[in-house]
């Protein structure tokens, strides 16, 4: 399910960031990313995203990232390591998998991060999990 078609989109009224390789929805305390079909998310693209997130949230922000994998694309799993080493932005991530191969890839990606990466079968599951994170326990009361 695309984030724009979810109930959360209307409730949260996120900032929509459109980049040549994907769309990002910047919500309070978390970001939902939807990459375009056949994109390869390399380090150059990852840095563009991070700079945009710092511009929006500030350099001291702590957020969660939800990769809503509605399209088939590839990612360099080393990005997870580089993000943790070079930026102190993400507290946790969720990967929404809509098929078995995406779920298996997410399982591999988990091994590249020292931070929590939750594999989810729906966007709702990913968002609810994000709300349950101790770092963001005040969000739920705002909904």
What does this structure look like?
36% of the residues lie in helices and 27% in strands. The chain is built from five helices and eight strands. A six-stranded mixed beta sheet has the order 1-2-3-5-7-8, sandwiched between helices. The chain is globular.
State the gist of this model.
Helices cover 36% and strands 27% of the residues.
Strand order of the largest sheet: 1-2-3-5-7-8
Give, in order, the helices and strands.
HEEEEHEEHEHEH
Distance between the termini: 21 Å
Low-confidence stretches: 139-143
Q: Can you give the mean pLDDT?
A: 92
Major sheet description: 6 strands, mixed
Topology:
Elements (H helix, E strand, L loop, with lengths): L6 H6 L2 E5 L2 E6 L2 E6 L4 E2 L1 H15 L5 E6 L5 E2 L2 H9 L3 E7 L3 H11 L5 E5 L2 H10 L11
Parallel strand pairs: 3-5, 4-6, 5-7, 7-8
Antiparallel strand pairs: 1-2, 2-3
Key descriptive features of the protein:
two-stranded parallel sheet; 36% helix; six-stranded mixed sheet; 5 helices
């Amino acid at each position: 399910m695309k984030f724009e078609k979810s109930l959360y989109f209307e409730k949260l009224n996120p900032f929509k960031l459109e980049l040549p390789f994907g769309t990002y929805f910047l919500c309070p305390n978390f970001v939902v990313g939807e990459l375009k079909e056949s994109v390869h998310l390399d380090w150059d693209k990852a840095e563009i995203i991070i700079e945009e997130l710092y511009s929006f949230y500030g350099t001291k922000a702590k957020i969660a990232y939800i990769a809503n994998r509605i399209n088939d694309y590839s990612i360099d799993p080393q990005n997870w390591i580089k993000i943790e080493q070079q930026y102190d932005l993400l507290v946790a991530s969720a990967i929404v998998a809509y098929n078995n191969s995406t779920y298996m890839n997410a399982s591999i990606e988990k091994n590249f991060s020292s931070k929590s990466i939750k594999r989810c079968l729906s966007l709702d599951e990913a968002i609810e999990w994000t709300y349950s994170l101790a770092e963001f326990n005040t969000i739920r009361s705002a909904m």
